[in-house]
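2024-03-11 09:14:02 INFO worker-7 job=invfold-0412 stage=load source=structure_tokens
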């Protein structure tokens, strides 16, 4: 008997398994339903037939019948960039381990792309939506809420939604204290005009602490928080030699990479002797010899685990108040920044980790 009745390019059906095993269609359904009534002998016969035919249960159809989807939408703009790509990878892994089916929705940058993304996500009745920092606009969040979907928001906050955030302001303050402890008095911040919530918070903490420490500050903003944005921010920060900063805190590692390459090519400054640079994220490239970037680490696996835990709690308790979680960051010491006297004992370790209060972990 052929493994497929008519069309070799079609999936094997439960009916084909039933015919192969010589049982009813309902028996096949019960055999693949945990706790359903079916004899051990018949179940074994059905499983052997399913194995021979390569049959897999249609979980999508089963979910629709049960009015409960296992799909979870991950809504993100430019998922291929920097830390975002690693967070998407960690989220998909965590969701699969949970038994969910993650769907990555790239919202794009135009209104048409956003509308298309909305139709796909809500048309498939996803069980929940996880929205990543900086994207999409609040209108997308409002639509998800009106459709009754649980919302988990990462790296930003939305009214009525659970969220997981990094202590961005605390990291900004620690970066300023680190630079000042190393002797810097003119501090720079390399950000982006896109003004994502994370950018605003890191800049605010850094500038406020720098002012508290009595330091002059200068800000350079690229168009986006990417490598090209880092180059543009560097052009602004190092436009006039008399105003060159002695240390720069970059909104993320991609911006730091662009800034470091610009400084090496366009100025006579030596990193870290003349200029200290700190990034944010600790993407794998930060440890490459080309950069050896001192940076704040936010662990994508930890962020994903907290997001999934919030999702489980929301589904178990739909009416509970929104939860707001804040995760600490760690400053990873490498070679792009001068190490202050208080941190010298950790200098031999290329990946020494400093807590937000300045003490060693």
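2024-03-11 09:14:09 INFO worker-7 stage=emit residues=361
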């Amino acid at each position: 008997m052929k493994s497929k009745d008519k069309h070799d390019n079609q999936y094997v059906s439960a009916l084909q398994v039933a015919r192969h095993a010589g049982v009813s269609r309902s028996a096949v359904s019960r055999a693949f339903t945990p706790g359903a009534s079916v004899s051990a002998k018949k179940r074994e016969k059905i499983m052997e037939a399913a194995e021979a035919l390569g049959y897999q249960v249609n979980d999508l159809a089963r979910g629709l019948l049960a009015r409960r989807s296992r799909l979870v939408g991950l809504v993100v703009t430019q998922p291929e960039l920097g830390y975002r790509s690693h967070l998407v990878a960690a989220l998909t892994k965590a969701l699969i381990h949970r038994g969910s089916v993650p769907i990555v929705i790239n919202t794009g940058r135009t209104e048409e792309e956003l509308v298309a993304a909305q139709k796909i996500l809500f048309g498939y009745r996803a069980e929940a939506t996880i929205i990543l920092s900086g994207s999409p606009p609040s209108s997308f969040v409002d639509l998800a809420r009106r459709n009754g979907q649980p919302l988990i928001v990462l790296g930003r906050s939305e009214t009525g939604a659970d969220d997981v955030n990094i202590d961005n302001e605390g990291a900004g303050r620690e970066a300023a204290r680190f630079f000042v402890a190393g002797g810097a008095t003119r501090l720079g911040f390399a950000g982006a005009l896109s003004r994502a919530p994370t950018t605003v918070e890191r800049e605010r903490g850094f500038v406020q602490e720098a002012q508290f420490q009595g330091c002059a500050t200068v800000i350079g903003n690229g168009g986006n928080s990417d490598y090209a944005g880092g180059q543009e921010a560097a052009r602004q920060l190092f436009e006039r030699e008399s105003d060159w900063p002695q240390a720069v805190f970059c909104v993320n590692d991609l911006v730091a990479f662009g800034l470091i390459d610009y400084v090496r090519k366009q100025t006579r400054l030596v990193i870290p002797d003349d200029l200290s640079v700190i990034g944010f994220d600790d993407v794998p490239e930060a440890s490459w010899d080309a950069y050896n970037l001192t940076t704040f680490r936010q662990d994508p696996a930890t962020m994903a685990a907290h997001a999934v835990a919030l999702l489980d709690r929301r589904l178990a308790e739909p009416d509970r108040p929104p939860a707001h979680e804040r995760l600490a960051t760690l400053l990873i010491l490498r070679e792009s920044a001068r190490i202050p006297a208080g941190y010298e004992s950790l200098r031999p370790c290329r990946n020494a980790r400093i807590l937000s209060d300045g003490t060693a972990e």
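2024-03-11 09:14:09 INFO worker-7 stage=report msg="The longest strand covers residues 186-192."
2024-03-11 09:14:10 INFO worker-7 job finished
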